[in-house]
Structure formats: C-alpha cells, structure tokens
Amino acid sequence: MALLDDSLVNRAAPPGSMRYFSLLYAPENRREQLLALYVIDAEMRESAQTVNHDVAHTRLQWWRAEIERLVNGSPQHPAMRVLNDSDVERSSFAKLHEAAAAADMDLARMTYSNSGELRAYSSRSGGAIQELMAAQLVAPSPLDEAARATANRLGIGVRQSEMLRDLRLDAYDGRVYLPQDRLAAHNVTLEDLRGREIPPHAKAALREFKGTVQEELKAALASVSAPLRPLAVLAALHRRLLDRIAARNYDVAGSRIELGPIEKPWIAWRTARNLS
C-alpha cells in the first residue's frame, strides 16, 4: 500500500511538472523512494517559507529530529517511512541534514558574497537530495564517488536554475540568492529584483549567471551514467528552461516562465533515450 497520498505528491512532483517527467524514467521499483525524497525536499523548503518565523523554526527543528529518527529506524513522516523500508544504508540519510541546513539558511534569508558561497549553499539545497536519489537508483550497490559528485553537480545546476526562474518571487520575500559581488558589479539593488520589470543592468547580471549555470549543467550531463537517467532528465529540462528564460530576454518578473506541455515530454524522452 502506498504511503504517499495525493496531497503530498501534488506538492512535491505534480503531474506535468519537470519532477514528474523525471520520475517517469526511473525504475518502477524505485519511483516511490525518489518521490519520497522530493516530498521531503518540498516540505522542508515550505517550512522555511512559513510566514511566522517561530513556527518555521519549530517545523525545521522537527525535521532535524525526524532525520535522526530515520537514521535510527523509527521515522514518523510517511515519506521518511518509505525511505526506511528501502535497501539503502540508513546512515546515508544523515545527508538530509544538509538539506535541513539549507532550509535554515533560507529562513535566515542569508545572502552569498560570491559564486563559491552560493555553490556551497546549492550543494546543500539541491545537491544533497540528488545524491540520495542516486543512491536509491544504484542500490543495493554502494554509490561510488564519481556518481555522487555528478549527482551533486546536477542538483547544484537544477537549484540555481530555479533561482533564476523564481527571482522576483524570492526577492519579494526577502531572499536574494545571486552572488552579491555579481549584483554589485552591475549596480543591481533589491528593488531592481522586486520590480514588475527587470531593468537592463540587472538583465546583464542575470545573463552572466545563466551562463554559469548552463555550463554547470552541461558538464554534469556529460558525465552522467545510465543508472542516473531520472536525474539527467531533470537536469536537461532545467537546461532547456534556462534557454527559454534567455529567449524571453530574462523577463522573469512579469510571469513565471515554464516549458510547454509538448516540450517537456519530448526533452525527457530524448535525454533518456540517449542514456539507454
């Protein structure tokens, strides 16, 4: 009997989403575990975005305790119970503390001085979950260092693609992820990012950032192996999203830029086929 109900699934990987299409190319006996990781990721991020700071802090404290319960074999959350029943070594789930730390950083509305600091955050926020997905995909074999590094790099690229797509919404909520040195070089202010239109000098900063993220994804996809096919699909979809954002001249303030309903399954299928 499935432990994950529709309300959890629809928040984490709703039908038609990029995560949804990545899961289509996972082995059937691994999909629920991968979905569980998406659920945990989504719920921890949502906890950090709770309007009341004290409530958000309490929720994240609960998640840290829940990670320890999972490592010790007695989790409560349905998604954690799915992972508890998998054939991956329980101690590896301590990696979820990285994602919890990233959520704490979101709650604190931390900023990042340079690309190195942002990359470290992105490794926690995006890379940790992808590493655990990779571990599920190769189980019961252990995840080797090359596959772990590739998975983490894919997660970094995906997370930073989301930052560009969600720039205005994040800025409106007081979260600015783009490196401060890059913004300062183009005289970009918080108000520039919160406005209904992205001014030309801010678009120049976004263009540079997009190029960096694009190269991250390109390099990671070049080294991905067939067992990590679902991760490659997700990364390829985000790489195309970056192209779409560039084609729209970085107009990420007016509306949320998405891939089309035909484009997503086509890119997913082509990426998966190339790894067969």
Write the layout of secondary structure elements.
Blueprint: H1 6-12, H2 18-24, H3 31-48, H4 53-71, H5 78-84, H6 96-107, H7 115-138, H8 145-165, H9 167-172, H10 180-185, H11 190-194, H12 200-222, H13 229-247, H14 263-274
Helix pairs in contact: 1-3, 2-13, 3-5, 3-6, 3-7, 4-5, 4-6, 6-7, 7-8, 8-12, 8-13, 12-13, 13-14
Structure description:
There is one protein chain. By secondary structure, this protein is mostly helical. It contains 14 helices and no strands. The chain has a single domain, classed as Farnesyl Diphosphate Synthase (Orthogonal Bundle), CATH 1.10.600.10. It has helices at 6-12, 18-24, 31-48, 53-71, 78-84, 96-107, 115-138, 145-165, 167-172, 180-185, 190-194, 200-222, 229-247, 263-274. It is globular and about 50 Å long. It starts with 5 loop residues before the first helix and ends with a helix.
Sum this structure up briefly.
The protein has 276 residues and is mainly α. It contains 14 helices and no strands.
At the fold tier of CATH, the topology name is: Farnesyl Diphosphate Synthase
Considering DSSP H and I runs of 4 or more, what fraction of the residues is helical? 55-70%
Computed over alpha carbons, the radius of gyration is 18 Å
Beta percentage is: under 5%
Number of strands: 0
Q: What is the top-level CATH class? A: Mainly Alpha
